[in-house]
């Protein structure tokens, strides 16, 4: 009924096959040229390429409209490349690799490279845009009302949802009766025919294409209204309450000659410093608005030398390894053990066990992390109630670490059980039967036959699982949030992973520092990559069995 | 089939020794199974209890339900756009998992069966790229999709298609590795003989390889489905309009503010979220169970 993998049975099915394969080193080219083009294949090819062409044309119109010539060029080249690839009979591996690779490049590699490039900049709060943006921001934020400046009647409007849409100031000048629309991009004159102006208050009550916010909606967003500054040639327009606006003059102005910002009232000057991307006064004072500059390796040296960052780095790194190895190893051991226990031809009800066992994996993990956190609650948590304990789980360093690993084990072992079951089924039973005929104990045959074969299939997965858990933000943020924290250091908790610790440093209370954050993530990436590369090169040897 | 010790005839004549043998061969397996099931189920019982508890707060919830009502479920549908979230998640996870296993099966086939320049580099690169802390690229993703939204609103923010494309970026990677491992364990003679019989590479892939790897397709499909359902960080940035959210984003918002009071509703939502995954598993069960060796290798 059954045959061994390369036994005589399979040879009988295709007589003469093996000699041909051995005697004549078949290249894929010869075989390919013999394969005829089938009608189905042709139809599928035409339909798919038609679809590609259709999508390319659909995507091209907005690019042309926006005059995005580089984007259009990439689109055209990609489409042409796809047509060439699937119409030629060559490059067969590429035919299989390109679809996934295209997505990989566009939505994974490109964002990662884009992100990594910010590691060499000071990108972050106050250093987001170009120098010109910073100058505009400094000038507009210093706008003050001066005698004689224009007063407008103000209506607050939006083009989108009243609660979330971008705000627009609709302004009417009571003297000249001119109407304007203004936002952070500047002031634009409106056609008088498009708007309705109340004769009573002088305010615009309706305008084509805009939704005017009522007083309740506007006051609900008063912070955004106050923050909105409309730059104009002589200064800027700011709101004064919700119904009036004024055009003020910038107190601080940029002077090209000295490449500095001058304060018209105090006479103080801040000179541009290209190295740090900010305007610095003689006394060392920096203006909050700077610009994005290349800072070279400064972020990297800061990670290594800044005691706030490098200080707790080592302790966190050790726990991070313990967490990743523990999460991966424990789930694998438990999952494999259960899979082995249930993998027997004489077991009844394995289907039922399997259905019930994988339920943790079917539960939404983010929700279950929050549920587990509540189950570890000291006072009315399920764990303490069920076992009659009074442990303050998230209060102590070690109990919090054990709790986190237990949650990880519960969440992760059904996955390992699933893949181990799948891998076990892929191993021909004849192999273990053969060892038992040869007199091996079950443990010996497991160690000598089953486990090596399992590891061939599962080791890349274990490496990937390790890499995933090394940066498993959700597991920590949804449960302990990195805590408990020592009394003298509220920034680095006992269960903090490098990534959550970095996240807090970079995006925390001090404001966003994307440049620094990506630098640390490059360090983390390097650590994970080295570990993975070492384990990978070891598993390669096993893989050669099949290559 | 040989006669086993636990067939009815054998058991009728059983002595204590053969009961011991039964335990040594089969019984302990059941013990392990029951213990594992207990470990798996008790947090879920806690959630069921909370979902049924009409009080609906965390502090009033116990392992055994203290009351039974569907109040939490009706509240969930009346007070939140839960039905929208549910459909969004189902559509997104369904399409994304199907597409991603197809893409990775294509790649796994090439990596397993073909030898070409850059194969090793490609495999290693795939593994490495996946290791970059992905959520730190969220700023870049946000900036990229700001442009995309301006050009093609149909695949921009708050659309399932934009998020789908983004998820396709991670379609290769671990799943490709897992699949390649299984492709590697299939004897090469199978597809080589088909090639000698005149099959094209596409026919080999679709007619011979895909049916053979159905079990691993089922497993990775399930993993991809669960991964999409649970994905939170990117979806949270991507989907901001109430009706466009997925379950993860919507339900997190439910308990972000007052968790204790909404706990019943949250638990009810958790249970409903689990339903599609359990159904998908049921659907794929027979492929997972019927292993590779039971399939075409023998036939």
From TrEMBL, chain A:
Recorded topology in the membrane: Multi-pass membrane protein
GO BP, sorted A to Z: maltodextrin transmembrane transport
Compartmental location: Cell membrane
PROSITE patterns with a match to the protein in the record: ABC_TM1
Transmembrane segments: 42-63, 69-87, 96-114, 317-340, 352-372, 402-427, 448-468, 514-536
Family matches, as CDD domains: TM_PBP2
InterPro entries noted in UniProt: MalF_N (IPR035277), MetI-like (IPR000515), MetI-like_sf (IPR035906), TM_PBP2_N (IPR032550)
One Gene Ontology term of the molecular function aspect: ABC-type maltose transporter activity
Pfam families: BPD_transp_1, TM_PBP2_N
Keyword field: Cell membrane, Membrane, Sugar transport, Transmembrane, Transmembrane helix, Transport
GO cellular component terms attached to this protein's record: maltose transport complex
Residue numbers spanned by region Disordered: 1-29
Superkingdom in the source lineage: Bacteria
Family statement: Belongs to the binding-protein-dependent transport system permease family. MalFG subfamily.
Function of the molecule: Part of the ABC transporter complex MalEFGK involved in maltose/maltodextrin import. Probably responsible for the translocation of the substrate across the membrane.
Record protein name field: Maltose/maltodextrin transport system permease protein
Organism, as annotated: Micromonospora terminaliae
Automatic annotation (TrEMBL), chain B:
GO molecular function annotations of the record: ABC-type maltose transporter activity
Subcellular location: Cell membrane
Membrane topology term: Multi-pass membrane protein
Signal peptide: none
Organism: Micromonospora terminaliae
The protein's name: ABC transporter permease subunit
Domain ABC transmembrane type-1: 86-284
Domain of life: Bacteria
Swiss-Prot/TrEMBL GO biological process terms: maltodextrin transmembrane transport
Family, as annotated: Belongs to the binding-protein-dependent transport system permease family. MalFG subfamily.
Coiled coil: none
TM helices/strands, residue ranges: 31-52, 85-111, 123-155, 161-183, 204-229, 263-284
Pfam family, one: BPD_transp_1
Lineage, uppermost ranks: Bacteria, Bacillati, Actinomycetota, Actinomycetes, Micromonosporales
InterPro entries the UniProt entry points to: BP-dep_ABC_trans_perm, MetI-like, MetI-like_sf
